[in-house]
């Protein structure tokens, strides 16, 4: 029998647990559960080829007891189990590498309890993020986690990857809001990590499970902290002459103790694209025409290219840029520095109680102006709010036009941040068009979110380009001393670099893996584990 295959006896036992309607070996179900939104898989799909190892069966459990029974059967035959939820991950975390069982959590979608007095809830892991937030808001509450994937990601996925929504600077990352988890380990045991009422001593078991991507066990439900719905939201845009000035402004704001809900600084290229996408609609920007661009870039030898670039950008910004040869990247930087006022755009937003929000927003405005920012009014902020989930839907046109696009988020302290930005950007720019923005800020440091794209002539060349790009960027991150991931997780794409980042401390993760998954069946190949 092939590795990961399920014997007739085990299949019958699994079918008795979930019933015949919640287990499938249908080819379409298996294919759908062989992939998530990892761009390396999308490269193959783009060229009409199938990539990935499909599971041997898909199961849809409805309770943690069913999951525990499934795990115990899997232990007997050493059948690998890969948890699957919304399939919105971009790192290959839900992709099986040796078949087995794909455990689809979407039927575990109940809001088990909501305590409006203590502002807590208990929710099953398969709950869709947008539905979860909508149910809370009907009660005057919010979890505060708003990833761009909110319409297709799940609460369990947020826990498994330590997700960070767009307003994490105020509310924290998803893992900052967790009181406890219920999970089934790789031993088949049901574990509750919530401290009891008499206090908590010793290790924080919840934090050890968060971010483990199903390699220790299956997260079944989470007990979470909540906040009141904001009474007021204030958003503004600012302009800075350089990335350095903009990041310094973020640092000053954070170290003064301010807690903006959102703070995002776009580098010159990302600023340019935001101006294109605005199209003069909501933030007062006049639409940039090919003629005006031509005039603004007379000194550039690439001026003849710009009108075509802009004309295409009006309909699909990324498509035209991403299908462009990487050799154009320095030229695009020249254009960006001229068109975007030789600078960068920042969005800052505050929300919460009315009086506090008004005071914080005004203090922030004065601080930003004092460190060199230019107030652009509320238009850019409102435009961002309107479009904040649209990035998840921009990828398809790029792949349809023969290129690929991906994102990479890394993080470091303020002292390391300038070097991290330069080194990683340079590493990516050797292979692809690249832009970046800074978000998810803390008193100690900040995350950088790179977006990059490239194209190659064949599937093999695309794979080689993609893999080399990631290798160079991860190596640059480790050399600077940054962290290789902030909120997308590790999955398959970052797994080879986990030991370089964690070094000797990776042994602790290995010890946890051996203890919680002694048979090596839980999501093999992820988080730096070979099995």
Q: How would you explain this protein's 3D organization?
A:
With 531 residues, this protein is α+β, with helices and mostly antiparallel strands. The protein contains 21 helices and 18 strands. The strands form four sheets. It has a seven-stranded antiparallel sheet with strand order 15-12-14-13-17-18-16, with helices on both faces. It has a five-stranded antiparallel sheet with strand order 5-6-10-8-9, sandwiched between helices. The model is unreliable at 279-320 (pLDDT under 50).
Largest beta-sheet details:
7 strands, antiparallel
Which regions have little confidence, pLDDT < 50, spanning 5+ residues? 279-320
Give me the CATH superfamily of the largest domain.
FAD-linked oxidase, cap domain/gating helix
Overall pLDDT metric: 88
Strand portion, in percent?
A: 15-25%
């Amino acid at each position: 029998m092939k590795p990961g295959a399920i014997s007739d006896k085990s299949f019958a036992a699994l079918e008795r647990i979930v019933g015949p309607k919640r287990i499938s070996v249908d080819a379409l179900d298996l294919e759908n559960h062989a992939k998530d939104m990892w761009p390396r898989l999308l490269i193959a799909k783009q060229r009409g080829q199938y990539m990935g190892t499909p599971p041997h069966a898909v199961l849809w459990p409805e309770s943690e007891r069913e999951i525990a029974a499934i795990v115990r059967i899997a232990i007997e035959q050493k059948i690998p189990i890969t948890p699957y939820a919304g399939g919105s991950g971009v790192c290959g975390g839900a992709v099986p590498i040796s078949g087995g069982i794909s455990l689809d959590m979407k039927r575990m979608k109940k809001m088990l309890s909501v305590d409006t007095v203590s502002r807590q809830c208990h929710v099953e892991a398969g709950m869709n993020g947008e539905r979860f937030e909508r149910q809370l808001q009907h009660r005057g509450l919010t979890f505060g986690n708003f990833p761009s994937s909110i319409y297709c990601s799940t609460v369990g996925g947020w826990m498994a990857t330590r997700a960070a929504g767009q307003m994490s600077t105020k509310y924290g990352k998803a893992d900052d809001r967790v009181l406890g988890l219920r999970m089934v380990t790789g031993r088949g045991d049901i574990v509750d990590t919530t401290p009891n009422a008499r206090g908590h001593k010793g290790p924080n078991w919840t934090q050890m499970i968060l971010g483990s991507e199903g390699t220790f066990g299956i997260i079944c439900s989470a007990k979470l902290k909540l906040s009141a719905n904001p009474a007021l939201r204030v958003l503004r845009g600012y302009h800075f002459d350089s990335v350095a000035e903009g990041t310094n402004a973020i640092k000053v704001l954070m170290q003064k103790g301010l807690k903006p809900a959102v703070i995002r600084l776009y580098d010159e290229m990302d600023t340019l694209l935001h101006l294109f996408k605005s199209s003069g609609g909501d933030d007062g920007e006049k639409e940039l025409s090919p003629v005006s661009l031509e005039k603004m870039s007379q000194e550039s030898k690439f001026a003849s290219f710009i009108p075509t670039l802009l004309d295409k950008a009006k309909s699909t910004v990324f498509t035209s840029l991403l299908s462009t040869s990487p050799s154009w990247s320095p030229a695009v930087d020249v254009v960006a520095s001229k068109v975007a006022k030789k600078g960068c755009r920042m969005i800052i937003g505050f929300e919460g109680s009315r009086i506090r929000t008004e005071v914080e927003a005004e203090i922030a405005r004065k601080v930003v102006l004092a460190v060199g920012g230019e107030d652009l009014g509320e238009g850019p902020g409102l435009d961002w709010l309107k479009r904040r989930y649209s990035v998840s839907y921009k990828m398809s046109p790029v792949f349809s036009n023969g290129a690929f696009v991906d994102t990479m988020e890394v993080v470091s302290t303020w002292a390391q941040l300038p070097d991290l930005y330069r080194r990683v950007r340079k590493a990516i720019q050797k292979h692809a068009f690249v832009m970046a923005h800074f978000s998810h800020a803390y008193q100690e440091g900040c995350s950088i979110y790179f977006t990059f794209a490239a194209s190659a002539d064949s599937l093999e060349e695309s794979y080689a380009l993609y893999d080399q790009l990631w290798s160079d960027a991860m190596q640059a991150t480790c050399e600077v001393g940054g962290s290789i991931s902030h909120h997308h997780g590790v999955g398959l794409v970052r797994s080879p670099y986990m030991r370089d980042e964690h070094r000797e401390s990776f042994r602790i993760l290995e010890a946890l893996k051996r203890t919680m998954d002694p048979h090596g069946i839980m999501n093999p190949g992820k988080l730096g584990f070979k099995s």
